[in-house]
Amino acid sequence: ELKVEQNPLFLSMQEGKNYTIYCNYSTTSDRLYWYRQDPGKSLESLFVLLSNGAVKQEGRLMASLDTKARLSTLHITAAVHDLSATYFCAVDIYGNQFYFGTGTSLTVIP
Amino acid sequence: DTGVSQDPRHKITKRGQNVTFRCDPISEHNRLYWYRQTLGQGPEFLTYFQNEAQLEKSRLLSDRFSAERPKGSFSTLEIQRTEQGDSAMYLCASSLVGGQRYEQYFGPGTRLTVT
Q1: Rounded-to-integer distance, Cα B55 and Cα B42, Å
Q2: What is the mean pLDDT of residues B70-85?
Q3: In chain A, positions 21-40, which contact chain B (CB-CB < 8 Å)?
Q4: For B61-81, what is the mean pLDDT?
């Protein structure tokens, strides 16, 4: 069974600092997704990474994919309070079901 | 708002009762997925449809659970004889297969509480 692991599970960081969330997965996949979830809300799509070496950036967030290492990263630059949320990576196999990671709960402290 | 809607948003029921949830996907999307999410966990796949055909079901989907997508548009998820362990957020997502992205768009979810 495909496993998707994220670390850290909890991240508390000060405003203005940089940090990286890691997503490892256990089987071959060329597609990886990052989602954001606010408390009590549904999932909001952040990035879709479709090939090895893909890099996407939106505001203070940048995601990358290394399919050979089965690793994706979500890098946060100069964090602000509005980024506080839970971030999930998800891997899909053949466009069928998604396998989600355990999530990283991010708290940005003023 | 992703364009995927779910109804109801919240449901409180007593153990042993049956419940049914509805999902309306983005109209041009041909795939529809159901997930379950418990507190502190990522969503877990339950089942998915391509048009009206149910193509895959998770082992999590016990025989008390049934899903339908009768005309390839909206879908329903029914839980019979609910148990307290069924308390969770039930998420619906839709996607358009045939393009490159396979991206899934999630609805707001139905939060089920079984007392």
Answers
A1: 22
A2: 94
A3: 31, 33, 35
A4: 93
